[in-house]
Amino acid sequence: MSMMKQKKTVQKKTLKARHTLSSGTNSHNERLKQDRPSIVFPALTSTKPKRRLHSTRNSSSSLHLLQEAVLTKCSSGSQEEDELAGSFNPGWMDKIHHCPVYHPSMDEFDDPFVYLQKIAPEASKYGICKVVSPLISSIPAGVVLMKEKKGFKFTTQVQPLRLAKWDNDDKISFHFRGRNYTLRNFESMANQEAARKYCVSGCLPSAYLEREFWNQMEKGKRGTVEYAINVDGSAFSRSSGDPLSGSKWNLKELPRLHWCTLRLLENAIPGVTDPMLYIGMLFSMFAWHVEDHYLYSINYHHCGAPKTWYGVPSNAALQFENVVQHCVYDRLLSVDGEDGAFNVLAEKTTMFPPKILLQHGVPVYKAVQMPGEFVITFPRAYHAGFSHGMLLFVHGRTYRDV
Ligand SMILES: O=C(O)CCC(=O)C(=O)O
């Protein structure tokens, strides 16, 4: 397709998308429409990060949500694959096994690097793992933020809760800012939204929400959710009396520990040498991606509803990129070969159900992260996921090699 025609198609789709979002009847969309400071719908191909050198900050958090028809067309037709490829069929979710969960003793927990080195040979085979902290914070995260970050406010991003109606030669992404919130305002908005959907704001069983999330993604039309990502700060307290914050697992301190290579960086890099806060609501999501420069990531859940993660081990990264290249995007990517998939994934905008991976024999595991738990992602392990409700979460990237 010529550049001109492509541009026109994107514009046409953009207008359609704008119409869909702004004409939504649901009250959340209406409120966003009124308060939204700016709306940008960049074309998918507008910003291509350099291979393995894209910046955390600049990675768009908008999502390319993929049409089910495109997603399922690679099914080779065996009975099992047909079942996995069927219209909404929760059966595939049970086929994704949980990643390992570690319960270190106080002694083992003393040094995160020694501990991670110990579990890495086994845990890295799953791409992700959970570490349940034997220490808890004595000061709740909300209290830390209120006290240590006076007037704390953050801006969300709006994510469409649906798969896009793409055709084979067109693709767009939605990327626009949500509102500015205090923690309390965000929580009340998030709880109202959850109650609007399920009559109560309390958390429902994880398996139910996993089914609901993918069901809504596949069947949804106008719904949106908000997610505050890459917010400067951390909810680890400065008080030395707090057992977890006083430990080496405090993500503010971890990159400065003696054998973390990141301590050698002269300048602070948000999200790398300093952790970042993520504040989510029911079905806030993060797209499939690997960490910048293939770093490890370490993520602590401070409070709120659980979060589901999916992870793919690094030895299947090429296989994963191949599936993205040939089955998810089909012929849509402008750059061929492994770079095409890598580049588009680096934009952190590609979200598709893990059943596509199952259909193509790509190993994928899941974790349901609760407050008080760390999730580790290993170098070059693709991961994606969603929140089960309002939650407060800290993410940090850490050293390259264990
Ligand atoms: O929870 C999120 O939104 C993102 C976590 C993560 O995988 C990341 O920041 O790399």
TrEMBL record:
Residues 99-140 form the JmjN domain. It holds the Pfam family JmjN. PROSITE patterns: JMJC (PS51184), JMJN (PS51183). InterPro entries: JmjC_dom (IPR003347), JmjN (IPR003349). Residues 1-35 are annotated as: Disordered. Signal peptide: none annotated. Residues 1-19 have a biased composition (Basic residues). The gene is LOC113724765. It comes from the Eukaryota. Residues 243-402 form the JmjC domain. This is Lysine-specific demethylase JMJ13-like.
